[in-house]
């Protein structure tokens, strides 16, 4: 069965779709436990066929860079592997999650680490050999933002630091690339709902030490 990575990492806008995919994963394990042959492939961003390939707009491009892209040829190879009777399916091997990235990959691509990486389920994807200085910045980003503002020598430099921090945090909240955040649009104009807007407002007050009406 073809499932989706959405069931693993979640999606604020597609809760019912995510639930349906996790059902497929559980159903495959149930069938295997019952002695039948079954498997699910949790696909991420398919680059060459399907909805994402046919709709190259902002909504689908958000997943680019956040999950690893897979081609139609690679999907066929995965299906052939699971269809091969020589490959024994067990409850722990009947589900393949495709497209997840490590924490270091997000840093290399200059993409904010998605919120789901904080969950224990993804702890194996986190890097353990990063520099202490980088760890401190990751664990307490608010301090680094305030430090940049305090170090700014002009209003223009302070404004640029604040803008970059806001753009980075909005991308983090929406699990997308910073390039997908349109600077000329409001928070709502970028597709954020009221809950995310409230979370963003709280972050602005705390991190930038501003008083908002």
From TrEMBL:
<dbReference type="GO" id="GO:0044550">
    <property type="term" value="P:secondary metabolite biosynthetic process"/>
</dbReference>
<dbReference type="GO" id="GO:0016874">
    <property type="term" value="F:ligase activity"/>
</dbReference>
<feature type="domain" description="Ketoreductase (KR)">
    <location>
        <begin position="1"/>
        <end position="47"/>
    </location>
</feature>
<dbReference type="InterPro" id="IPR013968">
    <property type="entry name" value="PKS_KR"/>
</dbReference>
<dbReference type="InterPro" id="IPR036291">
    <property type="entry name" value="NAD(P)-bd_dom_sf"/>
</dbReference>
<dbReference type="GO" id="GO:0006633">
    <property type="term" value="P:fatty acid biosynthetic process"/>
</dbReference>
<dbReference type="InterPro" id="IPR050091">
    <property type="entry name" value="PKS_NRPS_Biosynth_Enz"/>
</dbReference>
<keyword id="KW-0597">Phosphoprotein</keyword>
<keyword id="KW-0596">Phosphopantetheine</keyword>
<dbReference type="GO" id="GO:0004312">
    <property type="term" value="F:fatty acid synthase activity"/>
</dbReference>
<dbReference type="Pfam" id="PF08659">
    <property type="entry name" value="KR"/>
</dbReference>
<protein>
    <recommendedName>
        <fullName>Ketoreductase (KR) domain-containing protein</fullName>
    </recommendedName>
</protein>
